Amino acid sequence: MTFYTGILLKRCMEADPSIRSYLDIAERAFGMKGRIIVMIIMNSELYLVAIGLLILEGDNLHKLFPKFMIKLGELTANGRQSFVLITALVIFPSMLLTDLSILSYVSATGVFSCLIILVSIFCVGLFNSVGFHEKGTLLNVKSLPTAVSLYIVCFAGHPVIPSIYTSMRNTYQFSKVLLFSFVLTTSTYLAMATVGYLMYGDSVESQITLSLPTSKVCAEVAIYTTLLIPITRYALMVTPVATAIEGGLSENYKNQRTIRLLIRVGLLISTVIVAYVFPYYESLMAIVGSIFVVSASFLLPCLCYLKINSDLRWGWNCEQMGILGILVFGTLAGVLGTYSSVYDLVT
């Protein structure tokens, strides 16, 4: 479904050559209000993912150093919380950069990082007495909405599809590139899910690295590789949010370096506070999937396509029924996933 909605975004761009970004598509379909709504959705998703990166880093560092804590007088920060604070200090210098081209190259190694993590975890099961013989419940209907929300998070990224399309030398190959990307990512997710389930069954943690034995070399490779991801990606995630805030300032403040730095530091502090008091990675990602990814990757591409191509005649053809099916699925997944995630959190 998300592959097909990616194709719909491409068709929206073909309908109007002046479209250069996801925001342009929203504005072309629904005017300035549509652009503002989509901008809020995109930046909210990035902000929450940045919080998730801090939680991810704190959890995995705590896995490696379970007895570590920070004590300042009467104030005490336990392992996870103290590592969130330390991670923020490590990330802080990157937040002072206005040109993130260097970090973008480092972040581009994410594909290789995922493959290293997958191979390392497979080696843990193969060579470190963990094995692939665990079992669990085949179908847990109660947790299905949350699970679907987590699956949906895996296929986020539609807001960057128009930028990729416009940057291609041969745009006619876009569909093939998109198909290859989805096949590669889906295969990687499927392999990781299968290996993790066979190794740990229902007892697997929300982050599989938290289930690994830290005394094994292969496990340490997986964990340390995971630790690199938040540090290299955090600033790239938060920068679009900071840029959007700067865009709302008056001309007197918009281009002042001090104001730009204060905005970035403020975003870092706010995400640290949320990660400090809300250390629930699985619930956070499920909420991101059920609200923001459902909107950006399922609903909005279909709605924008239908609006831009409003001269289409409705009938019982496969394409229109497929679009209707995606809209229905996205709506149900969003409502049920959000309810299930919030309910699990408060109970």
TrEMBL record:
Residue intervals of the Amino acid transporter transmembrane domain: 2-341
Location, primary (coarse class): membrane
Biological process annotations from GO: amino acid transport
Keywords: Amino-acid transport, Membrane, Transmembrane, Transmembrane helix, Transport
Transmembrane portions of the chain: 36-56, 81-98, 105-127, 147-165, 177-201, 221-249, 261-278, 284-308, 320-342
Cellular compartment(s): Membrane
InterPro entries, per the entry: AA_transpt_TM
GO CC terms of this entry: membrane
PANTHER family the UniProt entry points to: OS05G0424000 PROTEIN-RELATED (PTHR48017)
Protein name: Amino acid transporter transmembrane domain-containing protein
Organism: Vitis rotundifolia (Muscadine grape)
The organism's taxonomic lineage, starting at the top: Eukaryota, Viridiplantae, Streptophyta, Embryophyta, Tracheophyta
